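seq as requested:
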Amino acid sequence: MAKTRSSKPETGERPAPQRDEAATALDLPRGELSEANLAYLAKCDEKIGFVPNVLAAYGHDDAKLSAFAGLYNDLMLAPSGLSKLEREMIAVAVSSQNRCFYCLAAHGAAVRQLSGDPVLGEKLVMNYRAAELSGRHRAMLDFAVLLTDAPDTVEEDDRIVLREAGFSDRDIWDIAAVASFFNMSNRMASAVDMRPNDEYHSQGR
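struct tokens:
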């Protein structure tokens, strides 16, 4: 039988946890972190003025924080044929399909800041098809969204479209890797009700 949801809490149901300052709805206190991870969190705080809640959330386990941060930094910040803005655009388009509140707030802010265009950031959050995109960027986001919504339908013709838009095969790998990473991140964020830092909402506007 299909599971149904009730709009009203059942008798005796535990009330929703307060999340005034909590990164997620789970009660997971910070674990014992390595010096490297403590330094990484301190660097985030120094550079952007706060520790992103996604890092606070993964901070319940040192190994998980290291794995998440290492992959994120490699995909989003390491040298690539994709610009940092393009990678953030992929993050937002994928997160829009998945309706991920955390990632739309955080990476929507990144698009606004990197592009200097708050309207572009808002359009990508709402519906990337409404944005005035170059052929390169439309092909890139079309592929990322196809990989999100119907991964089993991806075929060579879809890769050919990317090559014709100017992407190398290494670029195609990177588009797919960023899209795949954010599909995972979106699902984790939704599963634990991850909440974005308030600072994201005002950035780049």
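Residues 105 and 169 are 30 Å apart (CA to CA).
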